[in-house]
Fold this sequence. Notes:
- This protein is an alpha/beta fold.
- The protein contains 11 helices and 17 strands.
- It starts with 15 loop residues before the first helix and ends in a 9-residue tail after the last strand.
- Bound molecules: phosphoric acid mono(formamide)ester (CP).
Amino acid sequence: MSLKNRSLVTIDDLSNGEIMALFSLADAMAKNMSEQNNLCRGKIMASLFFEPSTRTRLSFEAAMHRLGGSVITASDVGASSLAKGESISDTAKIVGSYADIIVIRHPWEGAAKVVADYAGIPVINAGDGGHQHPTQTLLDLYTIIKERRDLKGLKIALWGDLKYGRTTHSLIFALARFGADILFCPSPGLEVPEHVIDKLVTEYGGDVDMISATAKKNANNLFPVDAIYTTPNSPHQLAMMPDMSVQVELKGGVDALYVTRTQKERFTGKEEGQERKRYPVVDKKLLQDKVFRKTLVMHPLPRVDELAYDIDADERSMYFKQAAHGVPIRMALLAALLGVKEFDVPDVESPPPVSYPYYQGQPGPVCPNPRCVSIQPTETKYLKPSFKIVNTSPLTLRCTYCEHGFEPKYVASTDWHEHKLDTKKYHSAASHWAKYIRPENLIVFNTEEEAEAHGYKPSHFVGGQRK
Ligand code: CP
């Protein structure tokens, strides 16, 4: 099996079997590092890092050097032509003609997808804003499997900034796919975004149960669990008594505690001051609690104040091992996408991919996420907003670039008015009519003004009830 010419933009781009095959290749490469230095001779990796990085950039560059390839670098927007207003697609086309593979980190969510769409060569997402960081997820999974052999049935707690922490977003989907249960322990105000939870439940099955404020208060103070995801494979007691289940879940201990830094650089005015709210630091004292007796303490790094230095020598601390695994994992990935290594893909259980119809209506909505690549002025000249219809009740569209979801307020159908202006009507998206519109006929509006500006008149069902 070959992954030649494929890109890795989100963790969904690899099946569970392909991930396990990459891990076997990484194991083989790690055992014989010095024998790999001819595999990518003559190949060039472009390393485009438009946000700060130590681990991801240097481990990718080290990986390419270990494979005998060469590296070209742009590591500062200010020193590239993006600073002159060049679009991401033009940059992608140009770099695609100089290199054999691109590794990109960019602050805009969905930027890696645009590069992959235009470069004409394999592209690896090294972090796109708060969206995803799929190669970090690979080495996170690899670390857990190395220590615990399997992911199925493990309890993994995610701790800290779950709103903007892109490493946790790709990790959540991967953990669900491999059958782990997830305990969400966000810093106050930095909970997992709704669109991530929606995708988790609709595409990977299982349930997310929210823990009540009273139960949180009565629960272990050291362990502020906010919600629990249980895979379809887990015995499910939570739906009946989610509050009791915090105690039940914690009784057997936690297999891994994945700590993240507060991503202050992505804060909007709304979150300013969140970092000053009290939140337990992961330190020697906290790890004395019996729930952490056998817990792997993980962190994508860099750390700031959330993870104390007093546990660095503790055998449960995995974060430096995680970072070190970055080299063999990225070597395996580069070799696979460049087609210089083929491998057998093991037969590993994986939920089938879900496909959704694309929204085709005109006028199209714009993505409500201010950090989405599709709304940036340099990109709107050529990039058409693109959405999938992921739910009809409530009607929900998901941006194909940043994956944020939103619920439009008003709907119309191209086949209702038969091109006669006097019957060109719009309805409330909450009215029962919304369910009957075929995806290819759907038109959505966010405001009545927008609908009326396009020549539509309110139906009897605007506002969800007959007027
Ligand atoms: N884990 C991680 O992405 O680290 P860097 O930001 O240093 O690359």
